[in-house]
Every structure is written in structure tokens, then in C-alpha cells.
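BUG-395 | component: ligand-complex export | severity: low

The export step for zinc ion jobs runs without errors, but we want the raw record kept on the ticket for reference. Input record follows.
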Amino acid sequence: MFPKLYNFLKNQGVKRLSFLSIDSKKRRNVYSHSPFFKISDKIYIKSRVFHFVPVLYPKQVKLKNLKRMKTLKIRLLITFVCTSLVIFSSCSKDDEVLRDNISTDQTDDVSDNSDDGNDNDNSPSGRNGEITLYKVNGEIITKIKDYQVSGQDLAYQQDTKKHQDIWTLVKKVMPTAYRSKMNEFLIYNGEANGSAGFVFETAQDLSKWRMGIAINFADNQQELTYTIIHEFGHILTLNNDQVDASISESSCNNYFTGEGCSKTNSYIHKLQSQFWADIWTQYQTAQSSQSGLQQFYNSYSDRFVTQYAATNPGEDIAEVFATFVTRNSGANGNSIAEQKIQLMYNHTELVDLRNYIRGNLGASSRSRNSMLPVPGSWKQANSFGNAKKSHCSIK
Ligand SMILES: [Zn+2]
């Protein structure tokens, strides 16, 4: 029960969430498969999956974050108790409220293509971290709306140069042909939900997507680059060329991504059918609890390029893609994790994509100016993922 995080995701029409957090005392990774989004299936009208990349903290703020987490734990405990009381005392009423909100949000999300800047939605305040929403027009981004923000968020909003700098980096990672799949670009504050980036579809047929980048986690150039590559990995593998949204889960003979049925030749279906199918039953059982998923990862760690990749096939392929792009050498060895990277190399269009990104980021120069994350360093940072930095409050 993290109301601010919950509301933010609810506003995006989220159906399912997975993220990585860390227990700061024991310094071990903890998977949370968001049981709090399963309060009631009735509240989910739309089928949407939210894809997060873990927040990658610069080393110098780790200690600060650990201190914050102590405070946060106390707040979360208080919030949990209070929220539980609210839910148990008025469950049916809550469901109605949630249903109403999602209905509004659907309109907001899906009809943003025609949003002319008139804020008729219920959440123009940016209280869930939103700062500025842009429409993507080829090479440029055009402002759709500024959310009503104050304080630090206002400073972030006014720093349009930073917005443009981030967008420039996005263009270096996403070639025009792939960028046409993205029609919205959101600058937001990741403090509200503990994420560094996200994507979700803005068109039912998965032909258009929104990418959000947390401006407050964008100072470290390499980590920002990693976030963008990871998020692009989602759009690359979940768009309408790869996934058919018109086929329901019950009619899907291939891997069902959550947004739709993956096509037989899609990257994600190949990855899931070749490298997950034999452990799929175990995974489905394991994913219902943190300890189960941790145990699942421990048993099959040689199958995954990062721990975060074990979250689900969607995160797996985003992490494989990020590794494929950022690692200087090719696949090393015969482990399943390496076979997944080889799967990327088996597609010439993906090799071209890798070359495009690395060329734009100065990877070949081996200079200090290279913006590519160093493999291993970001993997380590990966273990400091989403720290649930939302400020818990009940209104
Ligand atoms: Zn992701």
C-alpha cells in the first residue's frame, strides 16, 4: 500500500507491475511483484503492463539513500496500517472510486494524441511526479502540457534545456524508424514512484508508445543512457510489429506479453519459447511471492544477464538488449544468458541497431567521452533498484 506510487500507476492504467527493491540493512535484493496491485481485479478495465527500469543511484548518494530508507520504512509501516484500515472498512466504496479514476485516466492516456493542451483530466497537478508531457514529431518534441508543479519540480519544469538534452540522447538510441512508434515523451520526477524510466502503450494496437524519463535521476549520463536503452528495448519488442493486441490471452498460442499475443517470429516469443518454456511452470509459481522469485533466480541465475531480468520475459529481453548493446564483446560462452545475447546477434537488423547506438554514443572511440555504461558497473548498480521512494500519505 503505497498510495502515491499506487495513484501514479493507477493514473497510467497499470495492470501489473514488477520491480526490484533492496533491503538496505541486509543489502540484499528483494523482488516485489506488487501484490498491492491485486487488491481487486475489478478495478482493472484496461489491460496494461508497466515496465520499469530500476533506479540506478550514483555512488555518492548511496548513503543518503540508505538514511532515507530508514525514514521511509517507518512511513510505509504507518501508511500500511492506515491504508489497511481504509480498505477493510470500505472495500466496495474504494473499488468504485478506483474504477471512476481509471475510467478518466483511460480517456487521458488514450486520447492524448488529440490533446491540445486543455487540461480536462483530473490530475493536471503533477502530484504523481508528472512534470511536462511532449508530443513526438519526428526529430522534435512539442509540448502538450506542463503539469502544475512547485518547488524542485518547478525548477525541473523550467529546465527545458535538460528536457531537450534528454531527448537528444533518446534520438541517439532510437533511430527514426523505431522512434515513429513513440508519440509521447514525458519528463517526470522519479521520486514519486521510485523509477528512472517507463514505457506504456498509448494506442490500443500497440503502434504508439509513451516513454517517461525521470529528470531527477538523469544527471549521471551513463545511467541515463542505460535507462533509455532498456526502455527502448521494451518498445522494440512489444510494439505492433512484434505483438498482436487483437488476440486475447485465451486465444494466444505464443507468449502473451500482457499487452497482446506475441507473433511467432517476434523477438520476445523466440526468447520465451527457447529459454523460458522449460521452467515456465516453476516461474509462474515462483512469481507469486518475493521469496519464490528470489529462489527461482537463485536456481537459474546462469540464464539471466542481470537479476532484474528474471522478473519476467519482458524485462528479460530489455536487459538482454541493453547488455547486447553495451557490452563491447559478443556472446561469451554457452550459458543460456549468453545464448540470449547470441539470439540478438542472429538478427542482422538488431546488429545494425547496436552499431547505430554505439556509433552515436562514441563507443568505438574508447574515450572518456563514451556515454555507454560500462558492463558490470551498471550491473552492480542494478542491485540498487527501486527503493520505493514515494512519500506516503493518505488523502
Ligand atoms: Zn523494464
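Assignee comment: Attached the raw record above. The chain is about 45% helix and 15% strand.
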